[in-house]
Specification:
The protein has 14 helices and two strands, in the order ααααααααααααααββ. The chain has 293 residues and is mostly helical. The longest helix has 28 residues.
Length: 293
């Protein structure tokens, strides 16, 4: 892995332009909808959440935290939590259809067509985003990457480390998609009771299984990862316990808040809000915010 001096930002030329481009596409789509009178969809709230989620990604991947994680498991855990917390911010920013309106016309039509109901890509997306499938896949990604053989190997390969980061971000998206129900999302709870208890059960299972892993790192009396034991020596166990607390405590108020909001309002979100039809903007595809269609 390429060394970056501690305390300096790593403005990675292969990564940062991609993040900036994706955020620029979103902002462009937001501006197009906003200037054409669709402020209900392109509100200031979604824009703010998108910028904050983008900031989380940049801080996680380009800040001195990326250098610090080579000598601290706790810093590495904080890096991963930032990646996973960026997911609900970006999903709640209505990335579809806002980002689509920031794309050139041919790309928008092609991507919109690929996401139309019944198309192979949409069928795959719908299957992955069914609540318990999404949760199982998210937790499998999380637990698999924390196996000692994989986690130790991450520190010897920048490519493997980047794959891990992408995986954790994808894990966060899968975890939060059934809660936020960002488009394209078609699954519907059948009754309010199922909305309430189904969502609460979903959140509690996610919180429990994430907390178990964090508790293991906190309570075990031996360093789990040989890499950090070699780097930190006698301090490895203390650092590992701090990492476990980061993993244990940071998701607690976030996921716990999602469960409490479900109890309070009796549903994860208000019903899907229709986006402006493409016809009204001079195109042919219709998309929805917060649901499929």
């Amino acid at each position: 892995m390429r060394d970056v001096p501690f305390g300096q930002w790593a403005w990675r030329s292969e990564l940062l332009p991609v993040l900036v481009l994706l955020e620029a596409v979103y902002v462009t789509g937001w501006w197009i909808l906003r200037t054409r009178g669709h402020s209900r969809v392109a509100g200031r709230g979604p824009l703010g959440r998108s910028v904050l989620g983008f900031t989380f990604l940049v801080v996680a991947l380009c800040s001195p935290l990326d250098a610090w994680q080579r000598s601290s498991f706790a810093a590495h855990m904080l890096q991963h939590e930032l990646l996973m917390l960026a997911a609900p911010l970006l999903l709640s920013a209505r990335p579809m259809p806002i980002s689509l309106w920031g794309l050139p016309d041919p790309w928008r039509k092609r991507l919109g067509g690929a996401l139309a109901p019944g198309r192979p890509v949409r069928v795959l997306v719908d299957s992955l985003l069914r609540p318990w499938m999404a949760l199982a896949t998210s937790l499998m990604i999380l637990w698999t990457w924390h196996l000692p053989a994989l986690y130790n190997g991450v520190q010897t390969s920048r490519l493997l480390h980047d794959v891990q980061h992408v995986s954790f971000f994808a894990s966060g998206l899968l975890l939060w998609w059934p809660i936020i129900r960002a488009a394209p999302y078609r699954y519907r709870w059948s009754r309010e009771e199922e909305i309430l208890y189904g969502l609460v059960a979903y959140v509690l299972v996610a919180l429990t299984l994430r907390s178990l892993l964090g508790a293991y790192f906190t309570l075990t009396d031996q360093p789990v990862y040989a890499y950090y034991a070699g780097v930190l020596g006698p301090r490895a166990l203390e650092d590992q316990r701090l990492a476990g607390l980061v993993m244990w405590l940071i998701p607690l108020p976030v996921l716990g808040g999602a469960a409490l909001s479900a109890v309070w309002v009796g549903r994860p979100l208000r019903p899907p809000e229709p986006a402006p039809s493409a016809r009204s903007l001079g195109y042919e595809t219709r998309l929805t915010v917060g649901g499929g269609g």
